[in-house]
């Protein structure tokens, strides 16, 4: 079963990567054109995103009726529904990186296959950022409890309430 799981993961990654290439998501100029609302906007990636969201929406509801995933004991669906400073800052950094470089992590990794210098710089920078965040987060977790301040949270189920 373990070998089949690896083959399935590889096949899924291959299909995902090919989909990114076919959709143009590995072309930074196309991505930046999609994000340029004030200039020459290219809406074609919106169709890719809407298509992906629709496929996910349909399959998510279908698959959740299964007793369990094929290669795991449970689906591992996140339970958290709150929005905190860490999520907002992470999303902002992701968006800035995507807008400035024209890559996000998946297409950046797929673009390594082109052997282009920009994709290598992006992936190296992304990995450096991940390592720095991990080191900072480990350091922050080790701080005494008295120095830690809880982040304000917004519950997605009740967007009108903010806990401070």
Question: What does this molecule look like?
Answer:
It is built from 6 helices and 3 strands. It has 164 residues and is mainly alpha-helical. Helix 2 (28-35) crosses helix 4 and helix 5 packs across helix 6. The chain is globular.
Q: What are the SSEs and their pairings?
A:
Blueprint: H1 2-23, H2 28-35, H3 44-63, E1 82-83, H4 85-101, H5 105-111, H6 117-142, E2 153-155, E3 162-163
Antiparallel strand pairs: 1-2, 2-3
What brief labels describe this structure?
single chain, 164 residues, mainly alpha, three-stranded antiparallel beta sheet, 3 strands, globular
Characterize this entry briefly:
The chain is mainly alpha-helical and 164 residues long.
As residue ranges, the low-confidence spans are none
Quickly count the helices.
6
Overall residue-averaged pLDDT value: 84
- Content of β-strand: under 5%
Radius of gyration of CA atoms, rounded to a whole number: 19 Å
Which structural class should the secondary elements be placed in? mainly alpha
N-to-C SSE series?
Answer: HHHEHHHEE
What order do the strands of the largest sheet run in, or round the barrel if closed? 1-2-3
Helix content: 55-70%
Shape call: globular
Number of strands: 3
The profile of the biggest β sheet is: 3 strands, antiparallel
Give the termini separation.
48 Å
């Amino acid at each position: 079963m373990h070998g089949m799981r690896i083959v399935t993961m590889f096949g899924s990654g291959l299909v995902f990567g090919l989909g990114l290439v076919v959709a143009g998501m590995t072309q930074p100029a196309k991505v930046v054109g999609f994000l340029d609302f004030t200039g020459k906007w290219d809406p074609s990636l919106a169709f890719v995103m809407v298509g992906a969201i629709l496929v996910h929406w349909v399959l998510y509801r279908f698959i959740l009726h299964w007793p369990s995933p094929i290669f795991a004991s449970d689906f591992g669906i996140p339970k958290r529904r709150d929005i905190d400073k860490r999520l907002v800052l992470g999303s902002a950094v992701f968006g800035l990186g995507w807008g400035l470089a024209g890559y996000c992590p998946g297409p950046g990794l797929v673009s390594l296959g082109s052997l282009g210098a920009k994709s290598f710089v992006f992936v190296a920078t992304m990995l450096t950022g991940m390592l720095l965040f991990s080191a900072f987060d480990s350091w922050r977790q080790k701080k005494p409890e008295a120095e830690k301040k809880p982040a304000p949270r917004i519950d997605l189920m009740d967007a009108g309430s903010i806990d401070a």
